[in-house]
Specification:
This protein has 15 helices and no strands. The chain is mainly α. It is globular, with a radius of gyration of 19 Å.
Length: 297
């Protein structure tokens, strides 16, 4: 008797035995990549706060659109990678351990995507279309581009468009400064190079040959450090006006975190350290964005 299958991803995997509702919910929470999703949502909230010019409900819709978009991308990622994760014995993946099933993850990804589309369009046709282009790029990464040399491109596009999603929803629909889009794109691309570090060996064994996998752990960490440092430098020197002491303090923190990430050999046991360092740098950039609120739009 043939087991039913789901269709999100590059393979069709058999359904796992039924799990309890509570286990399904906790499994879904783990499968959505909660730390990156939360970090991007906080970054979006900071952008909305820094730009201003909209009411509470409009700001909440923009942040909600980004949050649901991130959820859809995270669930799509785990569903698309289910067979590879199972082959690699990834016990940190709920779809491998049976904490949740492929049908639940597929449905959650689609529901989150529908909510993302709805909330994005509530922010205006142009702004919503720009955001959905970034979400589409992230799905394209999950389903195809992560295995190619241009695996970094969806990250650059999706992050670079976030400031535009914020400003294009304002009266007059202004585009954000190019330096802000560049800083966001650099930060997102740097995050890509460290996000894959713990999985490089399994990825290579499964034929996933994105740019970080081709470069290897050490060189990927160096590339990530250059990119996120460049992001912080752009935020420091590109806006109009003199460089402030708090701005130098944020840059100093970025340099310190880069040094910490580069200080130790990047092995399986500590491959998460560079990723956590980039999260810290993103937090520093959020603080800097809030200080730059008068120059963004």
């Amino acid at each position: 008797m043939k087991l039913p299958t789901t269709t999100i991803g590059d393979d069709a995997a058999p359904l796992l035995p039924p799990v309890s509702s509570y286990a399904t919910v906790t499994g879904l929470l783990k499968a959505c990549h909660p730390l990156p999703a939360a970090a991007v949502s906080v970054l979006m909230a900071a952008l909305v706060t820094a730009v201003g010019g909209r009411g509470l409900m409009a700001g909440a819709a923009a942040v909600g659109a980004v949050a649901t978009g991130q959820l859809s991308v995270g669930w799509c990622n785990d569903r698309a990678d289910m067979r590879r994760d199972s082959t690699a014995g990834r016990r940190d993946k709920p779809l491998v351990t049976g904490e949740t099933g492929p049908t639940a993850v597929s449905v959650a990804a689609i529901v989150a995507l529908v909510l993302c589309v709805t909330l994005s369009m509530a922010c205006g046709l142009l702004a919503g279309s720009v955001h959905l282009a970034g979400v589409a790029a992230a799905w394209w990464y999950n389903l195809r581009l992560k295995r190619t040399v241009v695996s970094w491109l969806p990250y650059a596009l999706a992050f670079g468009l976030l400031p535009a999603f914020v400003t294009l929803a304002l009266p007059g629909r202004p585009w954000p400064p190019l330096w802000l889009m560049a800083a966001a794109a650099l930060l997102g691309t740097g995050a890509h190079f460290v996000n894959v570090l713990p999985d490089i060996d399994q990825d290579l064994a499964a034929g996933v040959n994105g740019l970080p996998q081709r470069l290897g752990r050490r060189r990927s960490v160096c590339v990530a450090a250059v990119l996120v440092l460049a992001s912080s430098l752009v935020l420091l020197i590109a806006p109009d006006g003199p460089v402030t002491r708090p701005g130098w303090a944020v840059l100093s923190m970025t340099v310190l975190l880069c040094v910490l990430a580069l200080a130790r050999p990047v092995r399986d046991a500590d491959a998460r350290l560079p990723f956590l360092a980039v999260i810290g740098i993103a937090a520093a950039d959020v603080v800097h964005l809030l200080m730059l609120s008068t120059t963004i739009a």
